[in-house]
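Why do we bother with a discrete structure alphabet at all? Because it lets us treat a fold like text: something you can write down, compare, and reason about line by line. To make this less abstract, here is a complete entry for Anti-sigma factor, putative, ChrR family. Read it the way you would read a sentence in a foreign language you are learning: slowly, and without expecting to understand everything at once.
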Amino acid sequence: MTAQSLWKPQKVHVNLLSRISVLPTSLTWFQTNFTGIWFGCFESDHEIQDHPVTMLTRFYPGGFFPLHGHPGGEEILVLEGNFADETGVHPPGTYMLNPEGFIHRPYSEEGCLTFVKLRQHGGKTRQQVRTNIFNGSWQAGIVPEIKVQHLYEQADFSEKVWIERWLPNTQLVNVVETEIKEIFVIEGTWSDELGSYPVGSWLRYPPHCPYSPSSTTGCLIYVKTYPVTDTTARFVVGDDFQEPEATIYGIEGRT
């Protein structure tokens, strides 16, 4: 883990037509202005729609944020420890999609690690989701060796989110997506023809990019797909997107 000082707004992996992979060993961690909070940024573009971000957030014991809202919504997947807010204490495996306007004061007594997608879920009619991937039901995937657990899909919104469980020695050949596809490795090691990606790795495949994924060890991965119609449009957060009114996660350019 590489550590630096406070985050300054910047562009990180903004070209949707580029194939991107980030290993946990190459992730740079930044301290925030809040007590006991650090994050490692996978992608960010501060020049559009007020800074959507995909990142890991590390709460050290006793770490907390002040009360704040989410005008563009957020996704949270708890990876380690217990994440807490006014809705309860959420153990590892908890997946939350908090829609536009959600307000909370998150904290962690013992410390935790979360995968977060911030300001990418605008739209006041978006459904709130709260589930645990370790307790959910599995469905058949595209081959018998892959099981799927659906987390989010809603009419009038283009994103789809699900979890995949790959058995050991599973392999697919020449997969081609029609939309952008993001993958975050939760357990095991996931591979393609360019390398192997352990727990904590994040990948993004552009549309029409062939790849041949596999897993020798077996793995558990988070998957998200969404379309892109313009290479300059970084994220689509909905027509109801509003400017944040307060500093969130210590990375806004203003208060």
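What the structure line is telling us, in plain words: Confidence is low (pLDDT under 50) at residues 230-255. The chain is about 0% helix and 45% strand.
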